[in-house]
Amino acid sequence: GNKVLSAKVQDVNTNYASRVLRSCGVVLRRVAVLADKTEEIAKAVREMAEDCTAVITIGGIGPTHDDVTFRAVAEGLGKELVHSVEMEGFLRQYKTK
After folding, report:
1. pLDDT tens string 10-46
2. Are 56 and 22 in contact (CB under 8 A)?
3. Distance (Å, whole) CA 67 – CA 57
């Protein structure tokens, strides 16, 4: 979010995801680029989850200690963030491809 908002990187994810989702028959109702702030992300997820069938997040999730995306999405959905060994294995396998 911060890198896109500060023009350090160009947002190519939204365009690509929009085309792919549209080709699958998904109608997008809202797109947001958010700052890397837990409260802002949680609020947007909460509002979209109340108003939409699905909330899809792209970009933003990184391996650094300061990444807030997982925590913010869990907070926005009113869920506890838990470590999943199964998901960790999937992500590690995906990373090596």
Report:
1. 778 888 999 999 999 999 989 998 888 899 999 999 9
2. no
3. 14
